[in-house]
What we know:
Blueprint: H1 2-6, E1 24-28, H2 31-41, E2 43-49, E3 56-61, E4 64-70, H3 75-88, E5 93-102, E6 112-120, H4 140-153, E7 157-164, H5 175-180, E8 185-187, H6 190-200, E9 203-213, H7 222-237
Parallel strand pairs: 1-4, 1-5, 5-9, 6-7, 7-8
Antiparallel strand pairs: 2-3, 3-4, 5-8, 6-9
Amino acid sequence: MSEEKKKLTPTPHIGAEFGEIAKTVIMAGDPLRAKLMAERFLENPVQFNNVRGMLGFTGTHNGKRVSVMGHGMGIASIGIYTYELFNFYDVDTIIRVGSAGSIREDLHVGDLCLAMGACTNSNYGAQYELPGTYAPIADFDLLRKASDACDKFGYNYKVGNVLSSDMFYHDNPHTDRWIKMGVLSVEMEAAALYMNAARAGKRALTILTISDHILTGEVTTAEERQNTFTHMMDVAFTLI
C-alpha cells in the first residue's frame, strides 16, 4: 500500500515526498502558527511544505517524530489537506489547534474547548450518501488524554459539542437555537476533520482556544492571544 501511495505524492497541495511527514500531525489554520509550533516545540524541524504558503515542518518532540502544518480557513480547506494527509501520506492522527467563539456564559476568552462532537451547517457529509444525519466525533482516547492534560496544567476548559460553520459572516446565524442544544462554541473546521478521519479509519481531535465571546462581545487582546493560545499547543503535544 505504501508503494502505491508513494506514486500519489507530492500531491497538488502538499509538496512533501512520501515519508517526510510523521504519523501524527498537529495542525493550525494559520500557517504562521504552525511555524510557531515548529520553533517552540520541535527539535531539528525540517520544512516539508510551502505550496500556497501552507507551511509544514517535521521534527521530534521528546524523542518522538511529529509534524506540524497549517490547514487554512474553513471546511473546504481543511477537508483537502487532511484528506491528503490521511489517504496519501499514511498519517494516522491529526490534532487541530484553533480558535473559536464562545456561545456559553461560562466559557470565557482564553479558556479551552475540547470538541467531543462537531455539529455543522455544511453540506460536506452529503458526499457519503448516508441514509440519515452523521454525527462527527473525536477519537475518545485523544479526548480523554487531552482532558487529563488540561487538568494537569490547570487550564480552564469545557468538553462538548461545537458548531463547524461554513460562514464567518452569517446573515442569519440562529445562535439561540444552537445554544438551546448545548453547543459550546463556533468554529469552522472540526466537522470535516472528523468526517475525513472516520472515513479513513484514522484518529482526530480538535482543541480550541476561545478568542471571542459571541454573546458578550468579549474579545482577546494581542497580548492575551500571545500568552494563552499556546495553552492548547501544550495540551496537543502531550498527545504525541
